[in-house]
């Protein structure tokens, strides 16, 4: 069908396996397991990228979750830096479902009351608030020069990617290796190896809280990006193969962007890069 995913290693070009899972607790007999637990909160890393120009409050510089930004010179072999890597409790929670599992469920804020009844979530629950926030993100108007969308299936994500890369393109996924529960969320990591694996057109996708996997993806036309595989060794000895995405032209970004403030840089002065957690991904041709 011309839509195969390129496979390499877990980190590099990853084949997304689609395990059959349910999308509602009331349908466990037909579809498998129960509704996925929604996270208590989204960390700084995941919420800061849909609009790369947005700033953050000054106090957020002290948030450990902000320790994901760096530059290319920071990933030279032997360099050490503090990095925030949340562990993934259940990797299957972040697998895209087959299209036939979700195509009949509207991804629409107008349908939120019906969706809450479908998933058996009280309107004033944390799950309801998380769903509302995710739907609002999915319905945001794309910034000028950017295309974005939310995807719940492998098929729809491939269609979106091929619309950007070309109809005959094969599509690969780059993501970080899973982090164990024993790994501290924030610790010093030393760079063991750094390899550029792709450049040019890249689509960044961020997992949003929902009863099943929803990825908010965005692509900037005319942007120059690079993605690296960075092998890291933590102070506790854990090894992480990290996806590291670099935005090479930051001249049009807001001076208040947290990356500039953390790294003490100005727009256009340097590339801004960030490590991806295992539940987010970069889509590449």
UniProtKB/TrEMBL annotation:
Superkingdom to which the source organism belongs: Eukaryota
Record field: transmembrane: none
Keyword Signal annotated: yes
Signal peptide (residue range): 1-25
Keyword RNA-binding: no
Keywords attached to this entry: Signal
SMART domains hit by this protein: BURP (SM01045)
Ranges for domain BURP: 69-285
UniProt-recorded name of the protein: BURP domain-containing protein
Protein source organism: Hibiscus sabdariffa (roselle)
Lineage, uppermost ranks: Eukaryota, Viridiplantae, Streptophyta, Embryophyta, Tracheophyta
């Amino acid at each position: 069908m011309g839509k195969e995913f390129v496979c390499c290693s877990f980190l590099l070009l990853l084949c997304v396996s689609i395990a059959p899972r349910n999308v509602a607790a009331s349908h466990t007999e037909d579809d498998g397991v129960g509704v996925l637990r929604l996270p208590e909160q989204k960390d700084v890393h995941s919420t800061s990228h849909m609009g790369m120009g947005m700033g953050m409050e000054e106090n957020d510089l002290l948030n450990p979750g902000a320790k994901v930004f760096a530059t290319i010179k920071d990933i030279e072999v032997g360099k050490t830096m503090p990095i925030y890597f949340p562990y993934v409790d259940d990797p299957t929670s972040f697998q895209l479902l087959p299209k036939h599992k979700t195509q009949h469920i509207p991804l629409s804020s107008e349908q939120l009351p019906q969706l809450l009844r479908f998933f058996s979530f009280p309107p004033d629950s944390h799950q309801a608030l998380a769903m509302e926030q995710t739907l609002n993100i999915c319905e945001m108007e794309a910034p000028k020069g950017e295309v974005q969308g939310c995807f719940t299936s492998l098929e729809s994500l491939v269609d979106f990617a091929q619309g950007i890369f070309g109809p005959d393109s094969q599509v690969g996924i780059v993501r970080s290796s899973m982090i164990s529960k024993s790994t501290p969320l924030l610790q010093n990591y030393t760079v063991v190896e750094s390899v550029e694996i792709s450049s040019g057109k890249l689509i960044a996708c961020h997992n949003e809280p929902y009863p099943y996997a929803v990825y908010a993806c965005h692509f900037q036309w005319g942007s120059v990006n690079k993605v690296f595989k960075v092998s890291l060794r933590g102070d506790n000895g854990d090894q992480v193969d990290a996806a590291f995405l670099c935005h090479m032209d930051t001249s049009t970004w807001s001076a208040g962007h947290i990356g500039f403030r953390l790294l003490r840089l100005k727009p256009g002065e340097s590339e801004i890069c960030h490590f991806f957690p295992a539940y987010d991904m970069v889509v590449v041709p």
